[in-house]
Amino acid sequence: MKFGGEALRNENRVFHTANIVKKFRTKETVVVVSAMSGITDKLYNLSKNVLTMNESEIKEKVDEIKKRHKKVIEKCVKKDYQEECKKILNDLIERLERTLLGILYVGELTPRSQDLVLSFGERLITPIFAYVLKSLGIDSIHFTGSEAGIITDSNFGRANPLWEKTRTLVKERLENILNEKVPVISGYIASDEKGRVTTLGRGGSDYTATIIGSCLDVDEIWLFKDVEGLMTADPKIIPDAKIIRKISYIEAMELAYFGAKILHPKALEPAMEKNIPVRIKPLFNPEDDGTLITSECKKSKDIVKAIAVRKNVAALNIFGAGMVGLPGIAARIFNALARNNINILMISQGSSETNISLVVEREDLNKAIEAIREEFKNENVIKNIDCNKDVAILAVVGAGMKGTRGVAARVFSAVARAGVNVLMISQGSSEVNISFVVEEKDANIALKALHKEFIC
Ligand code: ASP
Ligand code: MG
Predict the structure, then answer these.
(1) Which residue minimizes the CA distance to atom 5 of ligand 1?
(2) Domain boundary at 185, 219, 253, which?
(3) What residues does 361 pair with on adjacent strands?
(4) Whether 42 and 152 share a structural domain
(5) Does residue 188 line the site of ligand 1, with CB under 6 A?
(6) What is the 3-state composition of the chain as percent helix, strand, coil, each rounded to the nearest 5?
(7) Ligand 1 pocket test: which of 31, 33, 40 has the largest number of ligand atoms within 8 Å of its C-beta?
(8) What's the pTM value of the predicted model, to 2 decimals?
(9) Ligand 1, atom 7: nearest CA belongs to which residue?
(10) What pLDDT, on a 0 to 100 scale, did the predictor assign at position 301?
């Protein structure tokens, strides 16, 4: 079971969450927790601003974080354990403060020191949550991600598990205690082979849960969220959106990548490899089945399962007759963007080869144009780069589209009838997803039209 930030917003929610563990735990249950809501953001801002702050400002900010955790201890931890638990809190808070002061004195924030700062959100709440469980009579024991056995590469900020090591260690450290105690593990954080703290990318505690679940070959992984489950569309835009009761890993992954922001994009991979079902469970209605994600990709009457929208993106159109028939241009464009750490969200090239269109995060647009110009300076390959910075991607997702004729026609007819112009199209050959780009102002109109056409 994994509990995210909203589950741990304040002392009342922590109590609610601990009771979910009490109620639903089976003979062998592992709990993964992420930071209290907003704490990782706070730590992120703190790390970014620490060089412009003075010591007392830093102490003040750290104190705010301490207070939120202290409140949880005072409200949810049994009197007998409070002193022990507060001591752990004070020690960690002192370490956080020293880390921040260290960054201030050295005058430099590196990806490594930033990960160390970011790790404190999970490190603080994990032991406290274990004490809350103990207070409810559940024998529990707390671990950081690396204590539980997760070892990663040294890609700070977005580390990847070293699978062989991780599998052996997680089994070694957890398997024997499982039938006696409930391990409470901090999500999102791990360490590299040298023992330096790493993080798995924002929202990474989902990933921790599936890594641990896969290493232990668990029966099911439950991710508790403050939503009812995966939805057919964003309910804030489509009030009729429905819960998707069953979905395949592949489809759910498409949705995760498309900014549904409910799941960490990499989280389903370890579960999929071992064929372990993942459930998105509603935090405030824990009896409900939520959404079940499995390998089953059965063709159902729902050709389209969901429609996702990603806003805040920008499109680039790279022109030049010089590109025709010249191999390696696309590779050079992609490399130039990769070197500058720019993520490409969508690609399309017409077969005339005179242009390549790309979509990137809006905040990366200028950097992307510069990187491409720099790569091809002094060459007569690229004539022009057009851009449109106010666009959105719509992704129509459903395994039932595979081999069903006429889906694309229905998608684009529905969009056209709604009066929306399509700027760029891409369909992967997996046929699980048709994506296209529209002006951002048209995104909701297109979404409504498609939801009506395919879902309700
Ligand atoms: N606390 C981390 C974050 O906010 C990890 C997580 O929430 O899953 O990104
Ligand atoms: Mg979080």
Answers:
(1) 203
(2) 219
(3) 313
(4) yes
(5) yes
(6) 45, 20, 35
(7) 40
(8) 0.91
(9) 203
(10) 66
For the stretch 244-259, pLDDT in tens is 999 999 999 988 877 6
pLDDT in tens, 427-455: 876 789 999 999 999 999 999 999 999 99
Hey, what amino acid is at 25? R
Please give the residue range of the domain that contains residue 403: 306-454
Strands lying side by side in the sheet with 197-199: 151-152, 189-192, 197-199
Q: Which atom of ligand 1 is nearest to the CA of 201?
A: 9
Low-confidence ranges of the chain (pLDDT < 50): none
Together in a domain, 49 and 179? yes
- If 0-12 CB within 10 Å is exposed, 13-18 middle and 19+ buried, where does residue 105 land? exposed
Ligand 1 proximity of 140 Cβ (cutoff 6 Å): no
User: The domain spanning residue 394 has which CATH number?
Assistant: 3.30.2130.10
Distance 102 CA to ligand 2 centre (A): 25
408 alpha carbon to ligand 2 midpoint, in Å?
37
Ligand 2 midpoint to CA 36 (Å) = 7
- Which ligand 1 atom is at minimum distance from the Cα of 200? 5
Residue 236 lies in a domain: no
Tracing tokens 């004070």 back to the chain, one arrives at 90
Beta carbons of 455 and 302 less than 8 angstroms apart: yes
